[in-house]
Structure formats: structure tokens, C-alpha cells
Specification:
The protein is built from 20 helices and 14 strands. It is of the alpha+beta class. The chain starts with a strand and ends in a 5-residue tail after the last helix.
Amino acid sequence: MDKIEDSSEYLGIDESITDYVMSKVDDWQDYYQSNYAGQHAEYYRLFAGIWEEQDSMRASERSRLIAPALSQAVESSAAEIEEATFGRGNWFDIRDDAGDEESVSIDMYKEKLTEDMKTANVRSQISECILTSAIYGTGIGEICLEDVEEIKPAVRSIAEGQLSEIGVVREWRTMVTLKPVLPQNFCIDPLATSIKSSVGVAIDEFVSLDYVERMQEAGIYVSEYVGSAAPDSELEPDDDLDSVWDDHKVRLTRYYGRVPRHMLEAEATAETDEDKMEAGDMVEAIIVIANGGTLLKAEANPYMMRDRPVVAFRWDKAPGRFWGRGVCEKGYMSQKALDTEMRARIDALNMTIHPMIAMDARKMPRGYRPEIAPGKVLLTNGDPRETLHPFNFGTVDQITFTQGASLQAMVQQATGAVDSAGLAGQVNGEATAAGISMSLGATIKRHKRTLTMFQDEFLIPFVQAAAYRYMQFDPERYPVNDYSFSAESSLGIMAREYETTQLTQLLQSMPPQSPTYNIILKAVIDNMAISNRTEIIASIDASSQPDPQQQQKQEQMLQAEQQRVQELHQAQVGLMDAQSKESLADAEKRMAEAKSIPRQDEIDMVKAATANLDDGVQDEREFQRRLQITDRVLQEKKIEMAYKDKQEDRQMRMNQEQQIRQGMAQQMPPQPPMQPPMEPPMQPPMEQDAALIETLMGDEEI
């Protein structure tokens, strides 16, 4: 493919896509060099312990010592994020949003993706991006596709199955890798705050000529002549090297972004290429340029999700800019002060430790140059005790040690990187549990904040992009499906140790028989880094399960107890029933005895009715009339007494039934009360009869 050029009449210029891309890349590179390159280079020197003359704080400074405090902070912080990400083995998870049961198993999909990333050494590449972010403030990675030849041992049957041949099987596969990118090799629009918000991004770096030739042989790059690039220290990974290798290297610029449509050549006959072209004046494309002028590749974005193959995250956000704040930037001032303090002490030691001598020049031989060395002979004109005199500038003040320790604590305070040596005395001032908890709590929160940004901006987008590329270029192994990805990152090593301490203290406050004891014990073991953690947790789960034989025995004892309670309840009901029947029989007996005995009041009433009869009156008619009245009165009295007796009997039965129900309610669930049978009320004597009796007995004297 030749250079893609286009004469744009309406623009009035003749500009190729190579010029368009390189003009943007050069402008963006100049902006970075003017504002960030010097700071990033110094951050790297402080981390690596490389001294440069421009890093001196005093003109008279002679020592080149660099304290390791900032380097320790960078490594500790990066290790904390790596441990939180990869400490549990599985560092990402997959969920099926679509809920399609016919799709491939999610566990199998996750296992394949994990295996391929392990083969591609992705974990090591991510760790390098984390370290880059801790040093410079921003971690950048380029998602690459490589055709890898897998060689596996195999056995093949020959001679109709009678013999076996041992050999290998070769298979070409597409692998997704992650390439860490240094800040000086990354170009982005100065107004952008993320990869997506920029019009485009570019990776400008030196590669070997052999790499370009292999890509040309594979048909990925155009077969154009590519010579060696001119030296450029700004693109070198380490600009402090004494000599730079300039042979057989190419400056390769890979641009991922939007370009004008009229500049991008598209084959009209290829339907797939037409589908890749987007509507509008700008097209998302991939442009590869060698040595700033040779176009090797120009095509529309070939990925099905139209995403750019670059991911980046900031260690800490800096409002309004793409470049973040790293550990070196946070602890820069404290580190410079610590270096100045230590270099001043070393320079002072030069004046106090090394021997010096004062002499009278008038008594020294003419032209003699005295030197102090072991076994050296000094010539003097006269008594040496009067000519030579040892001389020193005193001793170094011991306060510099205290100042150095305070400055090192300031580095840890600024960066949030706390080690075990500085935890007790330098961080919290007192080795108390409350002080340590407060210090660790603040530190863990800062690491958790960085971990969250790393997951949201870098880890999950990379895993998602890798899965989509496997779906597109290896659909047999990775069937296309709508999956959702999440991180399985946990606490870092320092946070886990702190949490384990808290759980251990809580574990000591409860008895082993408590159901919560095993749960907390499992949490403590889960935070440990032992190899057989899973087996120990499984053993705890198995021990917490009840014994089947013991469980069966307990069930039998429970059934026997329930049967005994039921029999006791039945016996109590029978006893209460017998007592009720006995009470009813006794009541009936008493009622019968009461009815058989004449009532005294009835006899008295009869006597009173016949007391006034005149013995002299013999009128039979009057006697019969009064006798009828008396009989009627007696009958009415009997009716009234029978009514009262029945009322008393019914009330007694109701009381007995109520007592029986109350006794049964104590042993059985409550039941709705039974309604007593309705009985017709006994009618009292008729009012007419009472009036008749009063009329007959009113005014007469009987």
C-alpha cells in the first residue's frame, strides 16, 4: 500500500493522513515535554536512586546520597495494590446479564479466559502498569493482538495402531496481551481527561527493525522500506544512560483516534470495509507510521465494539487533567528535604572525620607540598611541634538523626505508605492500639481509593476488551454472548493483617460453642496467605455439620418425649372427665334428696292458710272453696321451685364444663368455646293466677 494522500479542494491544501497524524503527535509531544517531562524524569531518578546535578538543593553540595524513603513508599504502595488485586488467585468475575441458559457455562468461560491471560503473562504486565502509575501518576497499557504458535506434546498411532509415535502438535492461536507504555511515549490531546474524551491517542516509541519486518512479512504492515530512526533522547525509556543504542531501531507511531474521512482510503468493493466506515466527516481509525513519514497501516477501527486498544488509570486524580498524581509527586518535597539533610550531614562529616593539619609556612622547606598519609614524612625547618598542629572543625550535631527520622515520617505521611518499622513510633507517635488503628484506618482508606480507580478505569475495561477480542477472533473457543465483568479484588496485605487482628480479638471474646465462632474463624483463615486455606475452611464447614447418627438419635428422643407428653395429656383429660361425671352424679343425687323432702315453708304456708278456720263453721261449701285455693297455691309453689332447681342445675353444669375446658386449654391449643344447648326457659306462674289468688285471699279471713 502506498501513502494514502488526498487533495482536498475545499480545504485548499494538499495534506496526507501521515502529515495529519504526525502534526497532532508532534504538538502533543511538545506540550508534554514542556509541562511534564522534567517532573516525570526527576520522579524516576528519585525512585531509582540516580543522582543528577540539577537535583542538588545547594550549590556547595558535594554528596550524591539519595535516601530510599520514596523508593520504599513506591514499592510498598504498588505491592499493596498488587496484593489486593492478585492475592486471592481469581482477580475478575463474569456474570451473564442476558440470562441465556443455552450459552456456554460461565465458569468454563472464566476458566478459559484466565488460562489464556496466564499464558500471555498478563499479570506481570498489569503489575508493571501499576508501578508506572505509582512513579509517574498515570499507568498506561496498550491492548495488543498476537498470533502465537502453541506447541503441545502428542502421541500418534502408526502402523495400523501397532506402534505409537511421540511428537508435538503445532497450533496457531490469537492471544491478547497488554503492553505497558511509559508517559514519554504516550501522546494525548492536552484538553482531554480520559482516553475516550480525546480526539485520539498515540504511542510513539522505538522498536527493533526486526519487529517491523516480521509484521510486514505477516501482511499486517505494508511492505515499504523502513530505515533506522534518528536518535531522540526524549523517547528513550531512560534518558540518563551514558550511551544510547541507535542501530536497527525504528520510531514507530501508532495512532488510535478519529481522522477525516476523505483522508482514509476505503476499498469500495469490500463490503466488510464499508461496514467499518462510520457516518460523518470523522472516522475512527488505526494509523501506523514509521520514522515520522512512512505509512505502514491505515484502516478503520476493525474491532466490533469500536473501542480504542488503550487503557489508562490515575493513581490519584488531579482535577481537570489526564495526568494524575503518583506516590513520587506526593512525597517529592519531603524526599528533597530528607536528601538535603542527609547530604549536609555527609558533607559535614568530610570536614570532621578526615584528618587536617595547620602549619607555619615560614618554617616549611621552599617548594615542599606536604600531604597527610600513613607513614608520610613531613619536613620542617625547626621543631615540628611549633610548625605543625592538628586541626578540625568540631563534631557533627546529633540532632541531624532526629531530623532525618522526622523527615522520613513526613514521606510516609505524604505518600500513605506505612511499613512495620515506622508504624509504632513515627506514624502515630504512641504504640497504642487506638493510635495504630487510627493510623491504619486512614492509610487503608487511601489505598482503597486508589484500588477503586484502578479497577474502574483499568482492570475491568482491559478484561472486557480482551474478552470481546477473543469473541471476535476466536469464536469457536469463546462464543459470543453478553457478559458483565467485575473485579474480585480484596484487601491488601496491610489491610488484611489489620482486619485479622481485629477478628482475632473478637474471637477471644466469645465461647467456642457459639454459632458465630466458626464464622469468624473462617474469616481469619480466609485472610491468611497459607497454601491450604481452602482445605482448612472446608474442614471447619464439615466439623460444623451435625453427625447423622447423633441427629437420628436426637430425633428419636424427641419423638419419644412428644409421645410421653401426649399420653400424659390424655390421662389428664380422662381424669378430668371422670371427676366431672362424679360431680354431675353427686349433684343429681342431692337434687333428688331435696325434692323428696317437703319444704318447711310450704308446710308453714298451709298451716297459715288453715289456721283461721272457725271450728264452728261447718259449711262444707266454704271448706271446699278454701281447700281448692290452698291446693292451687301449693301447685304454684311447686312449679316455681322446680324452675329454680333447673336453673341451678344448668348453672352447675356450665361451671363444670368451664372448669374442664380451662384444664384442657393448659395442655392443648386454644379452641373456640362451645355454646351450651339452648333450653326453653321455664315459664313463671301466670300473672292471672297470682291476681286470682290475691282476689280470693285479699279481704276474706280464712
